[in-house]
Amino acid sequence: MVGALLVAMPGTQRFARYIALAVTLITLAIVTCVVVAFPADGRTNGTFAATEVIWLGQGSGFDVRFSLALDGLGIWLYGLTALLMWTAVLVSWNAIGDRAALFFGMLMLLEAGCLGVFSARDIILFYVFFEFTLIPLFFLIGIWGSEDRRYAAIKFFLFTLAGSVLTFLGLLTLVFLGAHRAGTTGAWSNTPDRPLSFSIPYLTDELQNQYATVFESLDTDANARLSLSEVSAGKSSVRARRGALLFAKHAGIAEPKRNQQILQMRMNERTFLEIDESLEIDKGTARQVMQELDQTQISLDQFKRQDSGLRQVIFWALFIGFAIKVPLFPLHTWLPLAHVQAPTAGSVFLAGILLKIGTYGFVRFSIPMLPDAATAAMPILLWLAVLGIMYGALVALVQTDIKRLIAYSSVSHLGFCMLGLFAFNRMGLQGGTLQMISHGISTGALFALVGMMYERYHTREISQFGGLAKRAPWLAFLMLLFTFSSIGLPGLNGFVGEFMVLLSIFQRAWTGTPEDFKTSLMLVAVLAVTGVVLGAWYMLSLVKRVFFGEVREPTHMSTGEGTPHPPSGDLCWREVAALVPLAVFVVWIGVQPRFFLDRMQPTLNRVADVVAEPWPASAMPAAATTADTDATALEFASFVMPQSPTTNAYTREPLPRVR
Fold it and tell me: Strands, DSSP E only, in 474-605?
């Protein structure tokens, strides 16, 4: 942000490139220090590099904060943003001559927005950064793009804005859902019991635990039935009251609102007579209701049905917004055009960072906050991911434009990322997240190389090239390295994430899947492997046709006579400097992936454990033993009203054990 302001100041425009480079180096150095300081075991409790300032509060009814922090999910995307900015500035050094100050200002604003997205810990703040990234990229494509730049910019903006609106509505509904469930009643109410919290960690914990905290002593059988004392046992006062009152609402006894009032008053140590008189009901009714409640048992499914439909709607609203951003088939149609028309730096940032905001959104919001809805949608999500893999690969095979081919390869490779995330197991989430980083490095570098070729020849037609390895050996070497990275050659970064994703989907298909879905998921796994083969086919074919064989360079059309293009030189030091850091990470991740995985595992494992139980079983906590249940029931009795352990906490009568 500071760099963008500097280049906008009068008298600094002619130094815009140097200001942008200096700001980029300073940002990269700071981000490098942050990444190096990140705990090697990844255990941060969401407080690493935390900054928090209250925006709205103090009686406003809202708890909105400028809250930033990093965890294992955001740390590598945060670092990748700063790294690719270095590449984007250097590849644009000579390519941008018109309004260079505005261009580099927009580029720095785009970096600031992406850094904010990956570190935001408040939903409002996240959405501000989420939307903010659209603006600079819209101008980058619309002003400095190719022939159809305006159409591409408008299509990109409309697609992503439409999805963002649905995403925002879904996020707001999550806030209301979390607030209305978080109070003492544990049920829908017109007025939340506390200010609306937009904190992402708070909402994640609250929405995950709404059922788990009620059924902490659940039996091994997911449909086990629990009594009132057992549902309310062994929790804090707020959790205990919430569980008990939620029980009263869904116990199937007439007049649930009245029953909740009776239970609430009883927990506030009111006598039965006082309750009867206060509610103006027949004498003895309160005692009778408490006895009926205490003899009733309900199942987990009865609790979960209360808002499952709403959660499904929220999930699909979030899905559309994030899937457009990825983009996931069939919502991908804006991407190839945006890539082809964007300037090189725009394509580098779009492929390397902006597409990852969609996958990041799934892991940050959709999966951990709505685990049951995500699990129910898993077969559809896996099929959409594998269809994207196949579609992107098959269309890439027939492309004649190098940049368009790589754009469709992005659609295919991001399908692998989504496949890992939607496998809903630890290996899949870790592999999918690592593949996000690997794709950002390799595809960002490929777009940079294509931009360097376009600077020299002013064409991207594959048929115009041949034998360039003899003219530009360093260009050929780096193109081959990043191609091998893209297709998943063992020893390079692309292999690790892709292998983990494939292993996770085979694990999902062959273990813990109902028979009705096993064949379908097996087919998904087989098609995913086919996508790997197709990926190697179109990328190696591209390298063979462009860099090997007889030397063939595009004709020089500026004179209108089709004269031979003068021989172009190899990469200069600036272009090599733009790509060498990416090449280092290609090898580093491939040789030592554990360095990167260790730092993201704790965060991702918490997400995976919510949905990693054998599908479609619920991800509720494991059963407690009978002794544990008895002990926790006694603790709850002591909390509500200190009595003998054999006395019911509500009726003050002997507690019958009903199972």
Answer: 555-556, 563-564
